[in-house]
# Entry
Amino acid sequence: MEILFLGTGAGELWPSAFCNCVACRRAIAHRSTGARIGACVLVDRKYLFDLPPNVALAAIQRGISLAEVTHLFVTHSHQDHFDPGVLTATGRGGGQPLHLYCNRRLADLLPTYQQFNRWFDPDSLNLNAHVLAPADTVRGPEDEFILTALAADHDTTGGEKPLIYCFQLGPKTILYACDTGWFPDQTWQDIQKRQYDAVMLDCTFHDLQECRHGHLSTGPFLEIKQRFEKEGLLKSGAHFIAQHIAHGHQGNDPSAQQLADRFGRHGVQVAYDGMIVDI
Ligand SMILES: [Zn+2]
Ligand SMILES: [Zn+2]
Ligand SMILES: [Zn+2]
# Structure
């Protein structure tokens, strides 16, 4: 299984469009390694987790077409995780069906997006929405994958139930867990039913500030990794990856190399845009 990190940032993007801090200027200077669009991974060029702004361009810059994507798993409605504009006027009209897996809140918002952009028409875009609630499990066509939605600890505005995903494809199992704080008890119970080849976990605030709810910072992130290890939830050689890295606008953000050094001591990879993990 190939996991391509098309985006590894948070809602602020890094560099931020109108931010002139030291960290943003550094990211522009080292744009090949320092820039982060919203968090998003592409699995086997076919399964896309979240749809941030600029994802189409990010794929193109890496020589990849999103035309092969048949399944889109969206965690929640925040703009850095679902940008309807990406689906609009990008050649999807009349294209092959795109299976969209999302929570009820996002499905309910789909007609609203059309009010802002009349070209966002779920029917003409051939979107096939599958609404998921926490603990729901669905199978892909001809059982090609098993997807389990789990509850995240994240923003519930509008009654939304943000999701994280367990994805099983053949013998491989991955956990995609952005955005979330400390997992709710039920989510822990469901997570414990499997062993993982790769865990991609929210580390939004890394060393910028302490955070345990809504998102995670370094301390709680490493506590979760320790719990995975203690409970034997990681397969031999499993990858444990920090994803959804925020920019704090103060100019004191660690560089990609500093983050890699900081987390590498704990056996954690810090995702960067364009990173590929083969499992
Ligand atoms: Zn986010
Ligand atoms: Zn900045
Ligand atoms: Zn969010």
Remarks:
- The pocket of zinc ion (ligand 2) is lined by residues 15-16, 19, 21, 23-24, 247, 249 (CB under 6 Å).
- The chain has one domain: 2-278.
- The chain has a mean pLDDT of 94.
